[in-house]
Write the structure tokens for this entry.
Amino acid sequence: MKKKRALIFGVTGQDGAYLSKFLLKKKYVVYGVKRRSSIINTKRIDDIYKDINYKSNFTLLYGDLTDASSILNLIKKVNPNEVYNLAAQSHVQVSFEVPEYSADVNGLGTLRILEAIRSLNLEKKVKFYQAGTSEMFGSTKEKFQNEKTTFQPVSPYGVSKCFAHWITKNYRDAYGMFACNGILFNHESPIRGETFVTKKIIQGLIRIKQGKQKKLFLGNLYSKRDWGHAKDYVEAMWKMLQQKKPDDFVIGTGKTFTIKEFVNKASKKLNLNIKWIGKGIKEKAVNIKNKKVIIECRRRYFRPLEVDYLKGNATKAKKILKWAPKILIDNLIDEMIEHEIENSNDQH
Ligand code: NAP
Ligand code: F7E
């Protein structure tokens, strides 16, 4: 049987790396789109080339979501069965600094892919996955968000992803395209970007423990997030494209924790006994053993608007996709800590 071909936009990111390995394991031929950068940006996928079973089925190609002709040429060249759009300016706080660029890549970039598929007359052949996000729920007051929860985005990132969501649905309805929106809640892993809060906390606490860093500076300690593992979430993406009918699905764990709770869990696992003192911007954590302040809050890490509370209801995915998260927060933190310690030892 002929192998299926998958084209992944955003292959160098956290999810792109996990999805590539997942699809290669399933015997797909994988084409990943990377953009040009001044330093090598393929760290997360370099190990694929070390695997004799994978490397011959994995190809990297240059492209950019802001460049419609590159997208069209890539789709024409690869002639994929499945296209995964994971490429994005994915940092919520940064989207307030570069709103137009975030809208261009995340919103129009999605449209450019859909339109390329359509203009190549591949709309009945190619299956399309769009990386949607719980950030689209924004300021919703619903306490357990599902596919019917109204979007109320509160950042340029959230707004750009709403455009991508609706244009994906529009192409599905208007042209009969097999196009699915995943509405994924936060998912992390050892290869999470270093400026996202989970990775920042774990990296910071370990460096403090090792005496390489004095303090960790954070923003809002009281927003709540539903954190899962990227490895589980890429499986859900693939499952969406294996259904008879295209549809949209919420993917989350159904559990929610504050940033402070995440810090407390991670410090406990690292045997760092901390005590919180002060309030508001003056709140800080003290290392009980040596009485040193190791965590402080800084205004620069607060956003102009915050998504205060997220908790995903993945009942539909459980029923239709037969998907459920396998890795929950405690095991996620354990894996992130283990990887970080191994990595920091490698450097010395
Ligand atoms: P990530 O680590 O930030 O990866 C984003 C990827 O997009 C990277 O490969 C990046 O390339 C690429 N990219 C950025 N701008 C691009 C452009 N103009 N043209 C082509 N590629 C571009 O994000 P992630 O955590 O893997 O998330 C994957 C997708 O899911 C994103 O769309 C994100 O918005 C969405 N999402 C993530 C979460 C989550 O919790 N992780 C939850 C819901 C939705 P470089 O490596 O060169 O920067
Ligand atoms: O922030 C708070 C911050 O940047 C989580 C992206 O993958 O998930 C991610 O977006 C929370 C926020 O993730 C710091 O204010 C406190 O409330 O790790 P984050 P995010 O904004 O939830 C969604 C689902 C996506 O789609 C996005 O692509 O933590 N927080 N102190 C901090 N956040 C950061 N980054 N840094 C801090 O120092």
